[in-house]
Amino acid sequence: MWVKAIDLILKQLQESGLKFSDIAALSGSGQQHGSVYWKQGTRNVLRQLNSTDQLHIQLRDCFSVQTSPVWMDSSTAKQCRDLETAVGGPLELSKLTGSRAYERFTGNQIAKIYQTQQEAYNKTERISLVSSFGATLFLGDYAPIDESDASGMNLLDIRTRQWHPQALNACGEKLSSKLGDKVVPSSTVLGDISGYFVDRYGFSPDCKVIAWTGDNPASLAGMRLEEGDVIVSLGTSDTLLLWLTEPQPALEGHILVNPVDTNAYMALLCFKNGSLTREKIRDECANGSWEDFSQLLNTTPPGNHGNIGIYFDVQEIIPFAHGQYRFNDKGQEVSSFGADVEIRAVLEGQFLAKRIHAQNLGYHIGPGNRILATGGASINTDILQVISNVFNAPVYIQKDVNSAALGCAYRAKHGI
Question: What distance in Å separates the CA atoms of residue 168 and residue 187, rounded to the nearest whole number?
Fold first, then answer.
């Protein structure tokens, strides 16, 4: 399906009149954690593509595993525990690779295929991430995995930017050669575009292919995050993206190699209880009206007179907890708040938690910090004011754009 999608979009662009010959460089992003398994002998096929045929026809027999595992697969709990045990525990794995073992991470998905589909694994010549898979198609040869996307696999040593031997050995035999022995910085020029695209679509033979990366790293590039910045995405779940220089890996959250500055890092924190939790309190306390919600919010001061609430209406990821908890100014647990206190409590509780978890991963609050807000709730200036109060930093609204695609365009420009 992914290969056919490339065929379709290039055909549509061609029919729209796009001059492919004007493109000096290209890059792209792929859904993080997914993996593609190329069958032995595929490298020769990639190098000898026939420009008269579509890609999906020529490559349909080139995959040793027909269905690619993606981030939604959570069936690898056993492999996660095995990997953590192999390196000395979950915290040690996080210190090495930026995250404790997660079911969706690629190393654990590979381990499951190695254990349950050994014949397919043995017939695999190369394992790509979705990102390096895309780059491979345009390069006409196996593309290396970039450092940033590789750090979402539970396999890369985020300090040395090299595969960690113990992690590799825990997930499969000869795994380094199947992944490609070296990873590359995200701005690496991989080479000229395949002659297939020159002949079929009219690309310039000098068009450069820049390393592809994951969707989250590409979004960081697209939103032009800088040191000290935080992206707060306010959606059904809330997500934080941070630029870090001195990461402190923990049992919660993810540390990835920065796709823009190869000497820096980024952190990713995802909270399940986001807009739906805020909307539930709005419905209960403000008759479903955001206007009434804001009026009640503004009757209480920042700090909420010392009252604080924790609202995990659905099972939270960070931390792994569920339930509602309210505490008064004396630190005593109480069963309820008044409507005005409840509204400020849900907002301050949510954003205080985000700040604390960000600091635990190495984020420093100080002069020059900026908050870039995006997502549906970013249109509510009263919510943004609470974020500004909690982080002690100005908040800017990021216009809705396809930040991952834009980030790839920036990285392609930067690569040349």
Answer: 25
Tokens of 35: 């993996």
User: Which one, of 194, 192, 195, lies nearest residue 210 by Cα?
Assistant: 192
Q: What is the pLDDT of residues 253-302, one digit of tens each?
A: 999 999 999 899 999 998 989 999 999 999 999 999 999 999 999 999 99
What is the rounded distance in angstroms from the CA atom of residue 257 to the CA atom of residue 192?
25
Whether the CB-CB separation of 15 and 118 falls below 8 Å is answered with no
pLDDT in tens, 207-256: 999 999 998 899 899 888 888 899 998 888 898 999 998 889 999 899 99
pLDDT digits (tens, 9 = 90+) for 103-162: 989 999 999 999 999 999 999 999 999 999 999 999 999 999 999 999 999 999 999 999
Token pair listed for 408: 């790839």
Q: Which long-range contacts (CB under 8 A, 24 or more apart) does 247-250 make?
A: 247/98, 247/158, 247/361, 247/362, 248/360, 248/361, 248/362, 249/94, 249/95, 249/98, 249/99, 249/158, 249/361, 250/91, 250/94, 250/360, 250/361
Q: Which tokens go with 250?
A: 């923990």
For residue 218, give both structure tokens: 């590409």
DSSP assignments along 112-162, one per residue: HHHHH-HHHHHTEEEEEEHHHHHHHHHHTSPPPPBHHHHTTTT-EETTTTE
- pTM score: 0.86
Structure token digits, residue 112 = 């499951």
Give residues with Cβ within 8 angstroms of 14, minimum separation 6: 20, 201
CA 274 – CA 239 distance, rounded (Å):
9
Phi, psi of 251, rounded to the nearest 5 degrees = -75, -10
